Amino acid sequence: MADISWELFASQVDRCTLCPLHSGIHNKVPGQGDIHAPLMLIGEGPGQREDEEGIAFVGPAGQLLTRMLSAIYLPRDRVYICNVVKCRPPGNRTPLQEEMDACKLHLRMQFALVRPKVIVLLGSTALKATLGPEHYITRDRGKWYERKGTWFLPTYHPSALLHDPAKKKEAWLDMQSLRDRLIELGLYPDLYNLSEPSS
Ligand code: SF4
Questions:
Q1: Which of 51, 100, 103, 125 to mutate to test the pocket of ligand 1 (most atoms within 8 A of CB)?
Q2: Does a structural domain hold residue 191?
Q3: What DSSP line would sit under 84-109, residue for residue?
Q4: Mean per-residue pLDDT of the chain
Q5: Atom 4 (ligand 1): residue with closest C-alpha?
Q6: Among the four residues 2, 70, 93, 191, which has the most C-beta atoms within 10 Å?
Q7: What's this model's pTM, rounded to 2 decimal places?
Q8: What CATH code is carried by the domain that includes residue 173?
Q9: CA nearest neighbour of 139 among 126, 127, 147, 151
Q10: Helix (H/G/I), strand (E/B), else coil: 39
Q11: Angstrom distances, CA of residue 74 to CA of 23, 142, 148, 151, 185
Q12: How far, CA to CA in Å, does 15 sit from each of 12, 109, 155?
């Protein structure tokens, strides 16, 4: 993917009408965070709050995600966070396959720009859209997958944890596994140090 930039990405998403989801939204939600982060998190799509504010993971699920990252000393503003689709599906339904396929153009550009070493897939939609439809979140969460030098970890979407708190135990195991992988790859100290201001 040659000659790409964040400016091109922003304007591409802003002007995008590749699928019907763009009609009726308040804002596109491209994603945000540290564009040089070694860690990227991918969710499903914007919810109501995200649609209103144009920022990913700002609702209750996003607040839980922030606490989950804090629990392993990862400041949220030092990771990059986005969704499979950048427009809110009506009624928060799961995006259709053709909508995910259309929006993959933007996600691929984000991969190419951020070049993360580790990607956390939050929920079934992110897992299937990224690693393939043969995967199931209940079976495959907590397993590591390596693709072309990038490590992927599927885990539950925070909204699933809000609906079913019994899943939090497994989610915590996944966060510990994420912490251990970041340590193993030599990335954790950088992220951790950034959480502590030097002055
Ligand atoms: Fe374009 Fe993605 Fe929005 Fe569909 S969901 S209109 S592909 S930005």
A1: 103
A2: no
A3: S-SSPPGGGPPPPHHHHHHHHHHHHH
A4: 93
A5: 19
A6: 191
A7: 0.94
A8: 3.40.470.10
A9: 127
A10: strand
A11: 36, 18, 25, 17, 15
A12: 5, 15, 32
CB 87 near ligand 1, within 6 Å: yes
Residue type, 27: N
Q: Which residue bears the tokens 């990038």?
A: 150
Q: What is the pLDDT of residues 66-120, one digit of tens each?
A: 999 999 999 999 999 999 999 999 999 999 999 999 999 999 999 999 999 999 9
59: confidence class by pLDDT, cuts 50, 70, 90 = very high
**Structural domain that includes position 92:** 27-184
Residue 198 lies in a domain: no
Nearest-atom index, ligand 1, CA of 17: 6
Question: Separation of 84 CA from ligand 1 center, angstroms?
Answer: 9
Cα 19 to averaged position of ligand 1 atoms, centre (Å): 5
Compute, in angstroms, the gap from residue 68 CA to the centroid of ligand 1: 28
Residue type at 22? Answer: H
Domain count, the chain: 1
Written as six digits, the tokens of 1 are 């993917």
